[in-house]
């Protein structure tokens, strides 16, 4: 329940302490609050978790708990609506604001939220945590004048001791920062895992009640039911290189694992048009035939790329009119060729970090999406960016900026399909930031895919990958995960899953363990006196084998599909005795 903040009125968000069973131990945890709103409101909502460990989170007790950070002047003010908020004025440096000292515990996850406003215009504002090891950005908001905008973020507690929360904005010229309803909520690692388990039960699995009956519709008790999952509704894939065409070891490792792929380079512009007007699709076509023969679905990556360094050599030096013509030729050559053969297109790659094509041709990136949609209405068209979930320092593609880009698309008249592509090139992950970023992006109500997941080579690489996968898969907004680990004999882009003999590396073991963990294999149960078996199953297709002496030939096989929205459904299997 979300309510506006009012002084002297008890109107807090209701929080429930929930019981989970995590790793065999009971865990009591406050529900994680996935809520975020993009609306700029007349008044701030109540602080999440009633403020958590933040002191005086609603600024109802003057400046108690708050101090000036830098040389800014801080004070409280009261709005026409009656809520009191904190103000930082006379700012001469980006980090001049207000601050509060908190105690951080090691191995604890922290989520942060606040409601922000600026005195005029709009500004990018980040919540920072000052620690003995340096200052950490935790979350961004685009604050505006005249209304309140929500900030949400998080950080890892990787030490124990005091830390300082403050806010920062590069817009310092006579801009005041205002804040209210500030929350800092800690969660233990067991509590965090309990939230993930709860999310799996709600979003990735459904309760299913199966009843076995004879040919007269009478229940059969004591029948043995064996349940085997044949496919998953959650798509997981991996990029591939052209070496898969000739390397049987690569084929034998890849084919049993993945039913979704993307070509590493073979569909990119520099590969398919190495010389102007000289198209060469032989590798892309051969790889397409390979995946089609094996019913592997394909993402199209990519049509054009805003990064000048990623253009064909000859295109980097084209004058504006000729570059625009070359782009038109690229679209007209590539998209019709693979129309109805790819499920996704990364249309104008990394157009938040780069804008070379846009600056040279004068065409807004929306133009390319309209063009791609007109050519292939059957594919889902994606924005595809790095940094949004990987790097809290990346202001260019922050979750708030990503939503602003989507809003720009709609404002400029693009009404076609659109997906949120998050590349996921990680170094050291900040798990609470990942979750908060996904919370924010999920408000767009668009498909969210992790398109190029890897972790750079470093100590704990496999552990980081396991933690990231656990967070991504369990977030209700994520609809698919693609690894970016195409095999190359000279080494992979950032993360290999195997050695050159296709023996799993530790990262490959993590991927195999993860994929086994989200599938059901070999579940066996027995029907009760009413012929029922109740269980919870991951969404997907299943083969159910029933064995009983009353059944002709002693066994019977049935295929079922378990999908979201079928909670507590009863699937009746009529069997001939």
UniProtKB/TrEMBL annotation:
<dbReference type="InterPro" id="IPR008979">
    <property type="entry name" value="Galactose-bd-like_sf"/>
</dbReference>
<dbReference type="GO" id="GO:0031176">
    <property type="term" value="F:endo-1,4-beta-xylanase activity"/>
</dbReference>
<keyword id="KW-0378">Hydrolase</keyword>
<dbReference type="InterPro" id="IPR001000">
    <property type="entry name" value="GH10_dom"/>
</dbReference>
<keyword id="KW-0119">Carbohydrate metabolism</keyword>
<protein>
    <recommendedName>
        <fullName>GH10 domain-containing protein</fullName>
    </recommendedName>
</protein>
<dbReference type="Pfam" id="PF02018">
    <property type="entry name" value="CBM_4_9"/>
</dbReference>
<keyword id="KW-0624">Polysaccharide degradation</keyword>
<keyword id="KW-0677">Repeat</keyword>
<dbReference type="InterPro" id="IPR044846">
    <property type="entry name" value="GH10"/>
</dbReference>
<comment type="similarity">
    <text>Belongs to the glycosyl hydrolase 10 (cellulase F) family.</text>
</comment>
<dbReference type="InterPro" id="IPR017853">
    <property type="entry name" value="GH"/>
</dbReference>
<dbReference type="Pfam" id="PF00331">
    <property type="entry name" value="Glyco_hydro_10"/>
</dbReference>
<dbReference type="GO" id="GO:0000272">
    <property type="term" value="P:polysaccharide catabolic process"/>
</dbReference>
<feature type="domain" description="GH10">
    <location>
        <begin position="221"/>
        <end position="514"/>
    </location>
</feature>
<dbReference type="InterPro" id="IPR003305">
    <property type="entry name" value="CenC_carb-bd"/>
</dbReference>
């Amino acid at each position: 329940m979300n309510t506006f903040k009012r002084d002297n009125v008890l109107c807090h968000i209701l929080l429930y302490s929930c019981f989970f069973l995590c790793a065999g131990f009971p865990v009591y945890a406050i529900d994680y609050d996935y809520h975020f709103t993009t609306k700029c409101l007349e008044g701030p909502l109540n602080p999440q978790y009633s403020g958590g460990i933040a002191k005086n989170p609603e600024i109802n007790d003057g400046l108690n708990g708050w101090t000036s950070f830098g040389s800014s002047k801080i004070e409280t003010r009261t709005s026409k609506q009656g809520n009191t908020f904190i103000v930082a004025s006379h700012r001469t440096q980006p980090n001049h604001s207000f601050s509060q000292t908190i105690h951080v515990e090691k191995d604890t996850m922290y989520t942060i939220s606040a409601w922000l406003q600026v005195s005029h215009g709009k500004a990018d504002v980040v919540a920072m945590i000052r620690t003995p090891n340096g200052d950490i950005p935790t979350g961004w908001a685009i604050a505006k004048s005249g209304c309140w905008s929500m900030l949400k973020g998080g950080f890892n507690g990787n030490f124990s001791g005091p830390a300082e929360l403050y806010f920062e904005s590069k817009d310092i010229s006579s801009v005041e920062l205002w804040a209210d309803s500030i929350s800092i909520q800690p969660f233990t690692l067991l509590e965090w895992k309990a939230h993930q388990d709860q999310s799996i039960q709600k979003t990735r699995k459904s309760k299913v009640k199966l009843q076995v009956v004879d040919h007269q519709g009478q229940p059969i008790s004591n029948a043995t039911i064996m349940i085997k999952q044949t496919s998953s509704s959650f798509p997981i894939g991996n990029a591939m290189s052209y070496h898969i065409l000739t390397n049987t070891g690569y084929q034998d490792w890849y084919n049993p694992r993945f039913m979704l792929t993307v070509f590493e380079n073979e569909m990119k512009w520099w590969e398919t048009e190495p010389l102007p007007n000289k198209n060469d699709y032989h590798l892309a076509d051969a790889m397409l035939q390979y995946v089609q023969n094996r019913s592997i679905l394909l993402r199209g990556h990519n049509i054009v790329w805003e990064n000048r360094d990623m253009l064909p050599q000859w295109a980097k030096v084209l004058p504006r009119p000729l570059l625009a013509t070359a782009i038109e030729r690229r679209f007209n050559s590539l998209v019709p060729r693979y129309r109805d053969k790819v499920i996704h297109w990364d249309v104008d790659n990394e157009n938040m970090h780069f804008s070379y094509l846009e600056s040279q041709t004068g065409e807004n990136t929306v133009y390319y999406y309209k063009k791609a949609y007109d050519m292939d209405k059957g594919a889902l068209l994606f924005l595809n960016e790095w940094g949004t979930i990987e790097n809290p320092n990346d202001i260019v593609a922050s979750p708030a900026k990503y939503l602003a880009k989507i809003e720009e698309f709609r404002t400029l008249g693009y009404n076609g399909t659109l997906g949120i592509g998050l590349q996921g090139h990680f170094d050291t992950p900040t798990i609470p930031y990942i979750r908060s970023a996904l919370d924010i992006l999920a408000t767009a109500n668009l498909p969210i895919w992790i398109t190029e997941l890897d972790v750079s080579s470093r100590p704990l690489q496999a552990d980081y990958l396991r933690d990231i996968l656990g967070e991504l898969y369990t977030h209700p907004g994520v609809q698919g995960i693609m690894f970016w680990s195409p095999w190359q004999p000279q080494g992979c882009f950032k993360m290999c899953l195997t050695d050159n003999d296709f023996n799993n590396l530790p990262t490959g073991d993590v991927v195999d363990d993860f994929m086994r963990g989200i599938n059901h294999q070999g579940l066996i149960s027995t029907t009760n006196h009413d012929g029922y078996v109740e269980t919870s199953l991951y969404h997907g297709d299943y083969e159910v084998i029933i064995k009983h002496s009353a059944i002709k030939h002693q066994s019977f096989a049935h295929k079922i599909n378990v999908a979201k929205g079928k909670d507590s459904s009863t699937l009746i299997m009529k069997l001939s005795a």
